[in-house]
C-alpha cells in the first residue's frame, strides 16, 4: 500500500494566504477552499484526504478580495497621479530648461517618475500574489516620494496664486499620509534589508552631490547680477547754409558688460535743451524736450555677455540763438530682463499695437497717452515654476506727452497694471524673480554755444535727414 502523504495547511498571513504543504514540501498557497482544492488536485491528492489544519480550521479564510483589490487600486491611482505630472515636468525641463542645472533637475524628475511607475507594478504584486520580496518596500518608497513632491509643491506655492496644482498638492499630500498609515499597518517595511553603514553612505553621497549641484548650478547663477552699461555721446554737428537749424549726431549705445545674458524689452532716449538759470538760488535749470525716441531694434533681442548695440541718430535742433540754451543734454534708459530666469517668445517682437488701437482697447489702469505697446506671454526658467506660478505676461508701453517714458509690467494675464507716474516700475516681485531692470545710462552734455561754433566751422552741405 502506497504511503499517504501528510497534508498541512498553515495559519493565514496578513494577505489571507494559507501555505499548503504536502509530504514536507510547500506546494502553494491558497486564499479559499476552492484554491486549496485546485492545488491538491495539481499534486494528485484525492478529495477526502485528511488535512492537518494549523492556525485555524477549515473555515479560517480571512481574505476579503474586494477590500484587498480596493486598497491596491487606491494606492495605484495615487502613484499614477504623481507619475503623470512628474513625467510632464521632467520631459519639458530635461529638453528645454533655460539653465544646465534645470535640465539636470529635469532628468532627475524623470527618474523619480519611473520609480513611481515601478511602484505601481509593485503595488499590484504586493496586494496580489506577493511574488517579489521587496514589493512592499518599493510601494512604500513611491508613497514617500509622493508625500515629498506634494509638500514641495505646496511650499513653492506659498505667496502664489491658488491654482489647480494647489488642489493637486493638497489631494496628493492627504492621500500619501493615508497610504503611509495603511502600509505601516501592513508591515510593508519589513522587506527592507540594507546594512546601516551602506544606507548612511548612500544618504551622505546623495546629500553631498545635491549640495554641490545646488551651489554650482542654482546658487552661483542666482547671485550673479547683470551689468548693463548704456549712454550717449555727441558727435559732429552741422548747419545748412542760411538755415535756422542745427543738426547734431548722437551716438547711442548699450553693452552687456556682465556674465548674464538679458533680453532687451525696450529702450528710450531723450534730447533736452537746458536753459541757464537766471538766479543762483532759483532751483535747477529748466529743460525743454527736443526729441525722444528708441534706439535698440528689434525689441526683445538677446544681449549676450560682451555684446553691444549702437546707433547714431541725427537730431534737428531748431534755432541758432546761442542764448536759447545753455547746453544740450542726452540721456538713455534701457529695460532688460534676465534670460536665465525666463523665456521671451518671438511673438513679443510682432505684438506691437499702435496708438489708434490702444485708444480703442483702453482699460482702467493703462498708462496714457500711449504711443505703442508690446505684449506677450512668457515662460519661467523651468516647468516646475510654470506649474507653481501659473501663466505670466510681460507688457511694455511707450508713453508720449510732454514727458515721454517707458512702462514695463510683468504679471499674470488677469491682472492689469495700475499705472503710477511717480513710480513707473513698481513691480518689485518681477524684479526679484526675473531680474527686470531699468538701466539709466550715462548723461552726455554739450554747451550749446560750443555746438553752434562747431556747426559753423563745418563745411556746409545738404541738410541731413533724421
Could you explain the architecture of this structure?
- This protein has 466 residues and is of the alpha+beta class.
- It has ten helices and 18 strands.
- The chain folds into four domains: 7-53, no CATH class; 65-192, no CATH class; 228-340 and 436-466, Immunoglobulins (Immunoglobulin-like, Sandwich); 342-380 and 390-434, no CATH class.
- Strand 1 (7-9) and strand 2 (18-22) form a beta hairpin.
- Helix 2 (65-96) packs across helix 4 (135-156), helix 3 crosses helix 4 (135-156) and helix 4 (135-156) packs antiparallel against helix 5.
- The model is unreliable at 459-466 (pLDDT under 50).
CATH superfamily of the largest domain: Immunoglobulins
Alpha-carbon distance between the two ends: 120 Å
Helix content: 25-40%
Task: Characterize the largest beta sheet: strand count, sense, and whether it forms a barrel.
Answer: 6 strands, antiparallel
H and E order: EEEHEHHHHHEEEEEEEEEHEHEEHEEH
Report the CATH C-level class of the largest domain: Mainly Beta
CATH architecture descriptor name of the largest domain: Sandwich
If you average the pLDDT, what whole number results?
80
